[in-house]
């Protein structure tokens, strides 16, 4: 949609003919943002209660005149705002599989019902029920933390064990009905509950909150506290009876009132809402995993490129070092030949014996052989000729 441009005078007329909130919605901004723009342009706006008085028929003051614009560079300032455009769809809403799963949970026919009596419980629930009878409540908060054994992860008070087991039984059976696998996995020191959705593993826990309270002291304890107050500084906590689901990820534990007991609804009535949260978390994990894989592929490609560049640089360095050595050897061979020629010339000038059997001739022949051995250009030429013969 094209930009809507308003002159300062046009905006002044609009803010005195349409409530600020309605006008802001028309152009896709907040009323606060619109009020700020009016202040920057020195446009007077209606005060608090102006539109309420006008709608009820009370007399209202006439709009104050529009002050003159004192900016010499822009005597006729325009005010530009874009019309409101629809928000782009999120990747989650664009995914057909996620939408299908969400619509399934929103259908009342698929509502997860928690039974009042634990009937024919799931094997994991039976195992958890047996184990929790042997676990003592934590002295810090009164909760039974069933995370150090290979059972469902529950953190509830003794009074909520039965209720928690019924909730988990209904949830697990709902998972299996939807074709999702439920499993237990040990991470660090404790076990956590995992459900596989969209080929992603999502960890969750059923949690009971706890609260601080002041314990009731006997008369003897009160007198003791007056003498030794530091003995009673330790805070006391107890379970509240309120349950909530929490979703774990690699970095935190996520919670929401939408998956918890409130004064209006119990968690038993929010089972499908929690399942939808698990679906969204699974989709988010899937997107993050794909992004991680993409970044890893890019990292590996970059590393491979760097290694190839390093290998070429190293090979080039070795070739340069070899060339330096060959040049030094070639210079040495040239010096030997020059020296031998100089000795030979001096011997000829002095009438020395240069017959093949003479000692000087043998030395000269030997020196030339040494020069040939030292000179790398001779070997290079020979290697080049051989390569041509092979091709």
Structure write-up:
- It is a single chain.
- By secondary structure, this protein is of the alpha+beta class.
- The chain has twelve helices and nine strands.
- Strands 3, 4, 5, 6, 7, 8 and 9 form a seven-stranded mixed sheet that branches. A two-stranded antiparallel sheet has the order 1-2.
- Strand 8 and strand 9 form a beta hairpin.
- The radius of gyration is 44 Å and the shape is elongated.
- About 3% of the residues have low confidence.
What does the average pLDDT come to? 84
Considering DSSP H and I runs of 4 or more, what fraction of the residues is helical?
A: 40-55%
Report the portion of residues in β strands: 15-25%
Structural class: alpha+beta
Give the tally of β-strands.
9
Spatial extent as radius of gyration: 44 Å
Integer count of domains: 3
Outline the biggest β-sheet: 7 strands, mixed
Low-confidence stretches: 81-90
Order of helices and strands: EHHHHEHHHEEHEEEHEEHHH
Shape: elongated
Give the helix/strand layout.
Blueprint: E1 3-7, H1 8-15, H2 20-26, H3 31-40, H4 50-55, E2 78-82, H5 91-94, H6 96-106, H7 123-132, E3 144-145, E4 154-156, H8 161-177, E5 181-187, E6 190-197, E7 200-213, H9 219-227, E8 236-248, E9 253-260, H10 271-349, H11 359-374, H12 376-390
Parallel strand pairs: 4-7
Antiparallel strand pairs: 1-2, 3-4, 5-6, 6-7, 7-8, 8-9
Helix pairs in contact: 2-3, 6-10, 7-8, 10-11
């Amino acid at each position: 949609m094209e930009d809507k441009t308003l002159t300062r005078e046009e905006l002044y007329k609009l803010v005195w003919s349409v409530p600020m909130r309605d006008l802001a919605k028309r152009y896709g901004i907040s009323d606060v943002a619109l009020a700020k723009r009016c202040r920057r342009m020195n446009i007077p706006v209606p005060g608090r209660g102006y539109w309420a008085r006008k709608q009820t028929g009370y007399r209202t003051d006439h709009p104050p005149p529009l002050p003159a614009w004192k900016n010499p560079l822009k005597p006729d300032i325009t005010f530009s705002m874009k019309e409101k455009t629809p928000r782009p769809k999120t990747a989650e809403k664009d995914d057909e599989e996620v939408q299908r799963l969400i619509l399934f949970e929103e259908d009342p026919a698929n509502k997860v019902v928690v039974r009042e009596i634990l009937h024919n419980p799931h094997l994991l629930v039976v195992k958890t029920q047996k184990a929790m009878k042997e676990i003592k409540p934590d002295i810090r908060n009164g909760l039974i933390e069933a995370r150090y054994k290979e059972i469902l992860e529950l953190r509830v008070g003794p009074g909520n064990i039965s209720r928690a087991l019924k909730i988990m039984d209904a949830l697990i059976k709902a998972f299996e009905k939807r074709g999702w696998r439920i499993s237990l996995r040990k991470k660090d020191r404790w076990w956590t509950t995992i459900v596989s959705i969209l080929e992603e593993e999502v960890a969750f826990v059923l949690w009971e909150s706890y609260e601080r309270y002041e314990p009731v002291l006997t008369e003897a304890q009160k007198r003791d506290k007056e003498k030794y107050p530091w003995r009673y500084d330790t805070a006391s906590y107890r379970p509240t009876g309120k349950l909530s689901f929490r979703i774990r990820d690699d970095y935190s534990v996520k919670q929401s009132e939408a998956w918890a007991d409130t004064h209006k609804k119990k968690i038993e009535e929010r089972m499908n809402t929690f399942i939808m949260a698990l679906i969204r978390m699974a989709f988010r994990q899937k997107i993050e995993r794909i992004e991680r894989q993409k970044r890893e592929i890019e990292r590996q490609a970059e590393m491979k490129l760097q290694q190839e560049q390093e290998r070429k640089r190293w090979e080039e360095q070795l070739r340069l070092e070899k060339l330096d050595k060959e040049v030094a050897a070639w210079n040495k061979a040239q010096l030997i030949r020059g020296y031998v020629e100089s000795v030979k010339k001096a011997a000829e000038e002095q009438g020395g014996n240069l017959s093949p059997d003479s000692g000087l001739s043998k030395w000269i022949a030997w020196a030339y052989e040494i020069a040939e051995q030292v000179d790398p250009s001779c070997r290079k030429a020979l290697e080049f000729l051989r390569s041509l013969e092979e091709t």
